[in-house]
Amino acid sequence: MSMKNRLEQQNSFLFHFQTFNEIKDSLYGTFGVAAYTILYYSGIGAGHRAYERRAAKTKTKEETLDLLAKDKINDNWGEITFQDLDFTKLSGRILVKNCFEARAAKSKQQICYFVKGYLTGFISGLMQKPVLLDEVKCFAKGDDHCEFTIAPDRS
Ligand SMILES: [Zn+2]
Asked: What angle do CA 148, 18, 110 make, to 5 degrees?
């Protein structure tokens, strides 16, 4: 299938890493740190829908996670792996190698707010409880990959 047909079928379009960064920088220039909140909440909505779509196509939580990881490799978002997911304690880790949000960015701190929101929405759906993620490693600040820890949202 051609790239155009594949994108058309998925109701999507291509975006350069740099373009995403420019949008993010412009949001930051206009709104300051509130920009990150906007990106985070945009991600939560997208992540929730991503969960619903994949849960409808799969039978187990493992299959749903595998499908997300496989789709995101194809979409060039990065290579996502899940570690020690605990559906009772609402804990675990998510590693993202070559995270698209970090690839064209350089920063002193972690900066993957959209991806953090996306994974938060996805995992909250999967665990059927609200969770919070913390980005503890980020490729944009020189770490090997981006890494998120999962905790229950007690708010
Ligand atoms: Zn990152």
From this structure: 25
